[in-house]
Amino acid sequence: MAAHAFNTTQPPPRGRRGVWSLNTPTITILFLWSLVPLLMTLWFSFRRYNLMAPDRIGFDGLGNYRYLLTDPGLALAIWNTILLLGAVLAITIGLGTVLAVLFDQEFFGRGIARVLVLAPFFIMPTVSSLLWKNMMMHPDNGFIAFLMRSVGLKPIDWFAVVPLTSIIIIVSWQWLPFALLTLLTAVQSLDAERKEAARMDGAGPIAMFRYIILPHLGRAIAATTMIETIFLLGIFAEIYVTTSGGPGFASTNLSFLIYRYVLQEYDIGGAAVAALLAIVLANILAFFLMRSFARNLET
Amino acid sequence: MANLQLRRVRKSYDNIEIIRGIDLDLHDEELTVFVGPSGCGKSTLLRMIAGLEEITSGDLFIDGERVNDIPPAKRGLALVFQSYALYPHMTVAENMSFSLKLAGLSKAEREMKVAQAAQILHLESLLTRKPKELSGGQRQRVAIGRAIVRNPKVFLFDEPLSNLDAELRVRMRLELTKLHRQLRATMIYVTHDQVEAMTMADRIVVLNAGVVEQVGTPMELYRNPRNLFVAGFLGSPKMNFLTATVESQNPGNVTVKMADGSRLSVPGQLDISNHSQITIGIRPEHLRLTNTGSLAATVTTVEHLGSESYLHVLTANSEALIVRVSGETAVEADQQVNVEVDSSALHLFDQDGTSLRSR
Amino acid sequence: MTLSYSKLQRKMLMTVLAWIVAFLIFFPVFWMILTSFKSETEAISRVPHLFFSATLDGYRAVQEQANYLHFAWNSLVVSLGSTVLALVFAIPSAYSMAFSPTRRTRGTLLWMLSTKMMPPVGALVSVYLIFRDAGLLDTKTGLLIVDALANLPIIVWMLYTYFKEVPREVLEAARMDGAGPLREIYNLLLPLSMPGIVSTSLLAVILAWNEAFWSLTLTTSKAAPLAAFIASFSSPEGLFYAKLSAASTMAIAPILLLGWASQKQLVRGLTFGAVK
Fold first, then answer.
1. Which terminus of chain A has a smaller tally of CB atoms within 10 A, N or C?
2. Angle, CA C154 vertex, CA C150 and CA C156 arms, to 5°
3. What chain A residue is nearest to B51 in terms of C-alpha separation?
4. Is the model's pLDDT at A292 over the cut of 80?
5. CB-based contact (8 Å) between B18 and chain A?
6. Among partner residues C103, C170, C183, which is closest to B85 by beta-carbon distance?
7. B135 CB within 8 Å of a chain A CB
8. Contact A135/C32, CB-based, under 8 Å?
9. Do B82 and C188 touch (CB under 8 A)?
10. Across residues A234-242, what is the average pLDDT?
């Protein structure tokens, strides 16, 4: 495949007749998949529509908007969504970078250790949430409670006292392996000669990390941020099985707020307005992320 | 039988014109070489003939039939790629017979044709191997074999030798020329290497920036380049260029004044007024070192090739020249020499770079 | 001598450090697997024991009382089905973008990715109502379609980066030999990029198997996959640690093995080729 590189003097290939059309089915269904729900959501956001009261359907103007904006849960849900995203990104990428450098070192049993570290990423969200809820963070039977008792502390009821923090811990645990593995792959792709050259120039471990390794990781960090954001904005199952958004709205994010409207209150109109908000928020984030990601991309 | 005609052929990508109006006639059984610097459009032109790139405007005829809208496989052409583009998961025999299989030939026919091609190319013992088990030269031959089995009207080669090492390149060059004679095939060969062009071509097409600079046999182009570009592109070492002015014109000869003040009398007639600026082109083999040489110069570097040496010299007004001398000539760097110009072998170009005459 | 000694010392230090980290991260999983072999009383003991008499009661109970296999079958059908469905759309699409790019290709790729940025909950209302009217609620077909759609952008992207590595000239040679687009895909692209297609499929299976949002909202019991089945243990009456652990261990085991086998490819795939 090295021969491919000889092709550089050729002009870039351009659309070939007939072949472009092979892309249309995918574009069409993705277009429908993103547009139909958006339009329906927009439509419902102006309607009075509760599944429990099917006879009271009708135009509601800005009623749903007014209702949602006075919902005390809304501001909190937006705040929680952003907090969850920011905290998990900071923890996984920060810790992931440090651990990537650690796991890049030579040590005994590296292969096995790496496999173990990776495990949380492959565990389905419902399992990892229940695992943490019952076996780790449970105030009576949890392992953490046991540890705290053994050192003479009073165990805390994680999901009642610090619900959002608890969820941040669980989600970070799930995504740390991914960040670690991605960054580790990037660290390992660093040219050994460049590190040696830096060492010849007198770079110690800290200078090496700051001036050689960290800049090299830019691309990997951008990609990790991007993919994590995609999934973190939609965090749902972790809340669903642990706190159900409570106590109150303390651990409700936008996703869960909408779910509450739909499947707990059957209020389609209210849910639609919240969904629009979620879409707007996602779009703002997508705009910035896509811009920085596109720069890091070779197409 | 295969004749190709290109008429006002153009190609543009995103409003940038790569091929800017090409008219060409390619003749049956000839090996035509498209040569030019990288980015001149020669590969694009070849791919347009092959059908891999669409022709933006103009017409392409094969044997009188307009083929612009005919898909590549139906044009009756075969293309040998620079990277060979062998199918890595198929054996040599499968690589060669793939097109025949798609064309619906029976197994017996396919095997016969592959065997024939393998014999021509000495590939018989390699038929069951995969491309990755072959050397560069062998891969090259498989790529040619893939073309031969189809018995195409025209063979197209896109810089086929550029991935080979120097020694193999020389050998394959000879083999390809031999193959051309043996098959009596029409071939178009694209290269950036003027040596390949000179040694292999029946006819050379010099391309530059998307236009044809000149078409002709190798020696025609070498002797009578139509402009500065062709003059400078063909020949190694390159033709020397010196600036001069026309001083006086007499019947039968012209006197030009060189930049260093010396004068040269050039036989022939020129269509140009006195005192015009011109460029004189002289090939290194047409310069000699003599005691009476008109150009005084200093040797800067001597390149010994054994049988001959190239002297890089600098004239009094700092114009660089290359002089080809016999390998026995004893010259050293920094030595002062006198260079004599064979005035019958001069090329004269006007300020636009167009040749002033054909000798 | 001193040099290699200090090198060894450093390696020992790194070994200790790295293994502590690895153990901490893996511990919850380890603990869960351990618990799955405990009796229910042992499982909720306030002073947990590392050594105990192992029992398979938990596993037996999960199958007998909760019909584990029913949910595992749903998971299998949905994840494999959605992967195949997505590939059917993604392969031609990635092929066309990788080998016949236009000025709009880059934008199209980014747009596809941006559709994935929409939180699924934004589509919940409409998908729920459409599914209700189309009779797709709580069906494997419905969930399979949604999973395929949700993963499609990522699958197209992954395939695209793998296809880009197939030399364009090889496909052009096939074109010269008389192959149309479908033959190019079938005879050349698929065999040449098989490793990439396999790892793309693996990732798609993993994503669909672990998918929780649509599983929880669009299915109730008939078509519920393991992700939804496990969530039913969150209600207080279902809380039996050993059983929960056994069910969870069985639910994650196949994916854990698949994931470990494909970890290298996974990074590449999930970062859209930005990290190799």
1. N
2. 110
3. A16
4. no
5. yes
6. C170
7. no
8. yes
9. no
10. 87
Examine residue C211 and state whether it is found in any structural domain, yes or no: yes
Q: Residue B153, CB half-sphere, CA atoms under 13 Å: how many? A: 20
C17: nearest Cα among B230, B81, A103, A39: A103
Please determine, for residue A1, whether its predicted confidence score (pLDDT) is greater than 70: no
Domain span holding position C211: 67-270
C262 CB near a chain A CB, below 8 Å?
A: no
pLDDT for residue A142 is more than 60 = yes
Residue of A nearest to C261 (CA): A115
Q: Which token pair is C83?
A: 């992967």
Inside any domain, residue C50? no
Among C103, C169, C191, beta carbon nearest to B85 = C169
Given a cut of 90, whether residue B145 has pLDDT beyond it is yes
Contacts of A267 (CB under 8 A, 6+ apart): A49, A50, A261
Chains in contact with C, where contact means 3 or more Cβ–Cβ distances below 8 Å, are: A, B
pLDDT digits (tens, 9 = 90+) for B52-83: 888 999 999 999 999 998 988 889 899 999 98
Chain C nearest-CA distance from A292, in A, is 12
Q: How high is the pLDDT of residue A15? A: 52
Q: Does B162 touch chain A (CB under 8 A)?
A: yes
Asked if the model's pLDDT at residue C176 lies above 70, the reply is yes
Q: What share of chain C is helix, strand, coil (3-state, %, to 5)?
A: 80, 0, 20
The alpha-carbon gap from A12 to the nearest alpha carbon of chain B, in Å, equals 9
Residues 28-67 of B with CB under 8 A from A: 38-39, 43-44, 53-54
**Domains of chain A, first to last:** 12-37 (no CATH), 65-298 (1.10.3720.10)
Angle between helix B107-121 and helix B92-102 axes, rounded to 10 deg: 130
Report the domain count for chain C. 1
Nearest to B102 among C167, C183, C191 (CB): C183
How many other C-beta atoms can be found within 10 angstroms of the C-beta atom of residue B35? 27
Task: Specify if C18 maps to a domain.
Answer: no
Spell out which residues of chain A touch residue C230, defining contact as CB-CB under 8 Å.
124, 126-127, 130
Residue A285 tokens, joined: 């984030």
Pair C121, A272: CB distance under 8 Å = no
d(CA B266, CA B348): 10
Residue C120 lies in a domain: yes
Buried b (16+ CB within 10 A) or exposed e, A224-248: bbbbbbbbbbbbbbbbbbbbbbeee
Mean pLDDT of all residues in chain C? Answer: 85
A269: left (phi over 0), alpha (psi -120 to 50) or beta: alpha
CA distance A20 to chain C (A): 5
Interface of C with B (CB under 8 A): 103, 167, 169-170, 172-179, 183, 187-188, 191-192
Highest mean pLDDT among A114-123, A261-270, C36-45, C262-271: A114-123
**B146/C173 touch (CB, cutoff 8 Å), yes or no:** yes
Residue B57: the pLDDT is 92
C172·B52 Cβ contact <8 A: yes
Give me the numbers of helices (H) and strands (E) for chain C, helices first please: 15, 0
Could you tell me which of B65, B91, B87 has the C-alpha nearest to residue B76?
A: B65
Residue with tokens 């009207």: B153
Partner-chain contact A9 B84, CB within 8 Å: no
User: Which residues does B339 contact at the CB level (< 8 Å), separation at least 6?
Assistant: B287, B288, B289, B293, B294, B295, B296, B297, B313, B315, B321, B323
Q: Which of B20, B46, B53, B139 to mutate to test the interface with A (most CBs of A within 10 A)?
A: B53
**Quick one: B271 exposed, middle or buried, by C-beta within 10 A (0-12, 13-18, 19+)?**
exposed
Q: Which of the residue ranges A72-81, A127-136, B223-232, C170-179 has the most confident prediction, judged by mean pLDDT?
A: B223-232
pLDDT of C87 over the 90 cut: yes
- Read off the CATH number of the domain in which C257 is found: 1.10.3720.10
CA dist list (Å): C188 to B77, B87, B131, B337 = 21, 7, 14, 64
